[in-house]
Write a structure and sequence with these properties.
Elements: E1 5-6, E2 14-17, E3 27-29, E4 32-34, E5 45-47, E6 56-59, E7 62-67, E8 82-83, E9 110-115, E10 121-122, E11 126-131, H1 137-150, E12 159-161, H2 163-171, H3 176-180, E13 185-187, E14 202-205, H4 216-231, E15 235-242, H5 250-260, E16 268-272, H6 279-297, E17 303-306, E18 311-316, H7 327-340, E19 344-347, H8 357-363, H9 367-386, H10 397-401, H11 407-414, E20 423-427, E21 438-441, H12 447-456, E22 461-466, E23 479-483, H13 486-491, E24 498-499, H14 501-505, H15 510-525, H16 532-535
Parallel strand pairs: 11-14, 11-15, 15-16, 18-19, 18-22, 19-21, 20-21, 22-23, 23-24
Antiparallel strand pairs: 1-2, 2-5, 3-4, 6-7, 7-8, 9-10, 9-17, 12-13
């Protein structure tokens, strides 16, 4: 029988409602009885003792807030009676001991990946068409219109919209209210055209609003990010579009590529519009060079690769009160399994590590990385406060509505994605993965900016937990959407790939679900399973302008 409530950590002084609770309902949990004094919605918390103003609220074993007024035992914890609070962090001794999970079932498993000449191994083989400046976005779209369908990469929707029905109704005198009641959704069976280049998984056409204007540092950072995308082993090569006069000059990108990986020998083309005689000639040059690159990219085939070659980005978005109980701990267990198998997980979203910095700092293998993590967090926090915000403003209205009422509470659950293994590297934005094992990467909590950054630093797969649902994907790295609850998984099954709701119901352990997830990740990495984000071509790409973004 499913428990109605859950205590996440023995030292917590709040209890989580796993289902809607009625006022004065007496609930049994592990030999004790609890009675909420008001209705408590599923995913929300209630007090286990009386709190006075200023008393600390503990969850996940850490400080997640302070009472702003008197709270009675059994009363709901809300934004009206609790505010964000987090412990100060100090760099102390290294605490890297951890319990490795049993990975015997995966010890000799492999995946089918793309081996690059520099030793990196990808899970995809895609070609990029990328503008160095926003002025070239329309030309990227022109190339996409010409190439995508002809080469068999045009797919995505499993539905059509009957616009003709609306036109006919409007021409027949239908009112606006009449049109709003029309059902124009027409399910279809997706027709997939055979790909011309069998070994190329896709052509990805990136768009962005950078490269010129703003500050020069943003353009330099954009070039470093694009260099990271080219360096990612999921990428076969690229065609870069330059206007000619922009801040993000070709030479800056070339220098960033060389500094990042002097051994990189992927096909690479640059086309400059201000050297072209006409737009038609320019588009023809883009198409011709891209086709030449695809011929070379198609020579690479999937081959057996060790699990240790995988780099798994760990992301969350649209989180709810169950994310830190089911989806994130399952991802964290997978992270620990991968570390044990010699692979590389990457935990990002620094605003969503606020409140758990001490445990992460302690887990850094080197004092240098511990100090760097504290420094990066302090700089980020200072920048947020300088523009009148702060980490406490991170929880979204959706987070709060579904039980995540402070940033520290949200962070304590989000950090579960990183498991318990030692941290072998702390990276700033656009820096590349160097050490095998768990790495921390400085990114915003913003879903797309963070997934964009994970792929730019070398992630070859990304698991993305969500409790509310999100359509986020990435152009070069498969994104696996993980639901924290089965209601979401069923309602949004066209975008969710993996359901961890059975953990909340007590039907599966975290370890059992993690083994299932790793099986699925190996299928995706081998090209045997297509995620919904890939199928729907959810190719989201937003570079981070380092002003401030939470």
């Amino acid at each position: 029988m499913m428990n109605k409530i859950l205590m996440v950590h023995p030292s917590d002084n709040v209890m989580v409602a796993l289902t809607d609770l009625e006022a004065n309902e007496t609930i049994s949990y592990e030999g004790s009885f609890y009675t909420p004094i008001e209705n408590i919605n599923a995913k929300h918390k209630f007090a286990l003792s009386d709190f006075n103003e200023g008393d600390e609220i503990q969850m996940y074993g850490v400080l997640v807030g302070k009472a702003t007024k008197e709270i009675k035992r059994g009363q709901a914890i809300t934004t009206s009676n609790v505010k964000h609070a987090a412990n100060e962090v100090k760099v102390g001794e290294r605490k890297t001991a951890w319990g490795k999970p049993d990975v015997s079932a995966f010890q000799h498993r492999t995946f089918q990946g793309y081996h690059r000449s520099d030793g990196q191994i990808g899970t995809q083989n895609v070609w990029l068409v990328v503008p160095l400046v926003f002025c070239e976005n329309r030309n990227v779209l022109a190339a996409k219109e010409i190439l995508e369908e002809k080469l068999g990469y045009s797919k995505g929707r499993d539905y059509e919209l009957d616009i003709d029905r609306l036109i006919s109704k409007s021409q027949s005198g239908a009112t606006a209210s009449d049109l709003l009641t029309e059902d124009i959704l027409v399910p279809t069976k997706e027709a997939t055209k055979e790909r011309v280049f069998k070994n190329v998984d896709g052509i990805k056409f990136l768009l962005h609003d950078g490269g010129c204007g703003g500050i020069r540092q943003d353009s330099d950072t954009l070039c470093q990010l694009l260099a990271g995308y080219l360096n990612n082993p999921n990428v076969a090569g690229a065609t870069f579009l330059s206007l000619g006069c922009q801040n993000a000059q070709v030479e800056i990108l070339q220098d960033a590529i060389f500094k990042m990986n002097p051994e990189l020998d992927k096909p690479l083309f640059f086309v400059e519009q201000q050297k072209s005689n006409s737009e038609g000639e320019f588009i023809a040059d883009i198409v011709t060079k891209t086709m030449a690159g695809l011929v070379e990219a198609n020579k690479i085939e999937r081959k057996e690769a060790p699990i240790s070659a995988l780099r798994l980005g760990l992301e969350c978005g649209g989180s709810d009160g169950f994310s830190g109980i089911s989806a994130n701990p399952v991802m964290g267990y997978v992270s620990d399994m991968l570390v044990t198998l010699g692979a590389t997980p990457i935990l990002a979203e620094f605003p969503e590590l606020n409140g758990v910095e001490q445990s992460l700092t302690d887990r850094c293998v080197t004092q240098t990385d511990a100090e760097r993590f504290v420094e990066l967090m302090a700089i980020y926090k200072k920048r947020a406060e300088a523009v009148g915000s702060g980490f406490d403003a991170n929880p979204s209205p959706g987070n709060i509505k579904d039980g995540l009422i402070t940033d520290a509470m949200k962070s304590a659950g989000a950090a579960k994605k990183g498991g318990s293994s030692p941290i072998v590297g702390v990276l700033d934005y656009t820096e590349q993965i160097k050490n095998k094992g768990l790495n921390l990467l400085c990114t915003p909590g913003n879903d797309v900016e963070s997934t964009t950054a994970l792929a730019g630093s070398g992630a070859t797969l990304i698991t993305f937990s969500t409790g509310l649902g999100t359509p986020t994907g990435n152009p070069i790295t498969p994104v696996i959407k993980v639901a924290s609850n089965s209601i979401l998984a069923e309602r949004m099954k066209d975008i969710i790939d993996f359901d961890t709701g059975a953990v909340v119901r007590g039907e599966n352990s975290i370890a059992e679900k993690a083994a299932e997830m790793l099986d699925y990740l190996l299928a995706v990495a081998s090209g045997k399973a297509e995620t919904n984000a890939m199928r729907l071509r959810q190719d989201d790409f937003i570079p981070w302008k380092r002003g401030i973004s939470l």
